[in-house]
Design goal:
By secondary structure, this protein is mainly beta. It has 4 helices and 20 strands.
Length: about 350
């Protein structure tokens, strides 16, 4: 049998090389099938997915189907093995080039590929106008609103009115949410984003720790990012499919992720609890908002809340609706989700 030309290399998607490493890659041919072995090192904060594709001698891309073993979701470790049988797919082994690819994603976070989108609405309240172009950079956002279990693990207490580990934490102020972000960052060995106190709190958007989304990031995510289908609510034009709100909540919060997710796989961005954003609120901010990565006015009296909640009407759960509150206030429908920059 002629020797197979097999070329292996990694494609690291959206994360630095330090996030994972494939080593000790080897290949051999056994009874007409390709056996690939490798070691995968990684971090507990990531989930890993390994895939394979190939190119023939003409440069055509092939997506192998007759594969088995340590493919797809893979836990880091040694002696990982992939079995591929090109002959079953009618492929000629000679000159075939196999490409081993790895994708790493932060656990609990969804990668959002930044792009330019249209923010706001001409059919809503005055503070949603005008519709304007905004460009956001890549970032990660939590799939779910921060739960009481997550809050207790970092803060050691539970301020929520509706108790349950998998319910969203509520009765948290904007200041409480900022403190959580910094404490979680330090606990995981990351650089906190926030410094200062009171109205003098500043955010280092270049730090690798956790923070609240900017209002622009939040609206881009709620709209479904680069997969947006322009729904009225987060993931649907039928609010009951995606949101716990006044007509179906039974006057309480519900376990995160029990409603249909949006186009990006993010849950509860409409309804359940209002979500704090970083930005100061200004009714007319959209008229002067910068195009690239806006972070809101430099000062103000209120911080932005988005998404609606368990006791709000459907209109408040629209993707473009804006709300605000004193950053000191905490109610049983105020919660949040977190983001991290793509580093």
């Amino acid at each position: 049998m002629k020797r197979l030309l097999l070329v292996l290399f990694m494609i690291v998607v959206t994360l630095p090389l330090s996030a994972q490493q494939i080593t000790n890659m080897k290949q051999k041919i056994e009874n007409g099938r390709i056996v690939i072995t490798y070691d995968l090192s990684g971090s507990d904060e990531y989930e890993y997915s390994v895939s394979i594709k190939a190119k023939d001698t003409s440069g055509n891309t092939i997506i192998p189907s007759a594969v088995a073993g340590d493919i797809g979701k893979v836990i880091p470790g040694r002696n990982k093995t992939i079995y591929w049988e090109p002959v079953l797919e009618g492929l000629n082994l000679e000159g075939l080039k196999a490409i081993l690819s790895i994708k790493a994603m932060l656990k609990g976070l969804i990668f959002i590929q930044g792009v330019t989108f249209q923010m706001g609405s001409n059919n809503g309240e005055s503070d949603e106008k005008p519709v304007h172009s905004v460009t956001v950079d890549d970032f990660y956002i939590s799939k779910y609103e921060v739960t009481q279990k997550e809050w207790k693990a970092v803060m050691g207490s539970n301020p929520s009115y509706f108790k349950g580990d998998n319910l969203p934490v509520e009765q948290v102020s904007w200041y409480d949410a900022v403190e959580f972000c910094n404490k979680k960052s330090r606990k995981e060995g990351l650089t906190p984003c926030y410094s200062g106190s009171g109205k003098s709190i500043t955010c280092n958007f270049n730090a690798n720790g956790y923070r609240l989304p900017t209002e622009a990031e939040w609206e881009y995510a709620v709209r479904g990012g680069n997969k947006s289908r322009n729904y009225k609510y987060s993931g649907s034009n039928t609010i009951g499919d995606v949101a716990w709100y006044s007509s179906n909540s039974g006057s309480k919060t519900h376990q995160v992720g029990t409603k249909q997710a949006n186009e990006l796989g993010i849950s509860d961005m409409s309804g359940n609890v209002w979500e704090w954003c970083w930005d100061w609120y200004d009714n007319d901010y959209y008229s002067s908002s910068p195009r690239n990565d806006p972070t809101g006015p430099s000062s103000g009296s209120y911080r932005v809340l988005r998404g609606g909640s368990w006791h709000d009407f459907d209109d408040y759960c629209r993707v473009a609706h804006r709300n605000f509150s004193n950053p000191d206030y905490s109610y049983n429908d105020y919660g949040f989700r977190i983001v991290r920059d793509s580093q």
